[in-house]
Amino acid sequence: GAVVSQHPSRVICKSGTSVKIECRSLDFQATTMFWYRQFPKQSLMLMATSNEGSKATYEQGVEKDKFLINHASLTLSTLTVTSAHPEDSSFYICSARDSRVLSNEQFFGPGTRLTVL
Amino acid sequence: GDSVTQMEGPVTLSEEAFLTINCTYTATGYPSLFWYVQYPGEGLQLLLKATKADDKGSNKGFEATYRKETTSFHLEKGSVQVSDSAVYFCALSDRGQAGTALIFGKGTTLSVSS
Question: pLDDT tens-digit profile of A52-64?
Answer without folding.
Answer: 888 899 999 999 9
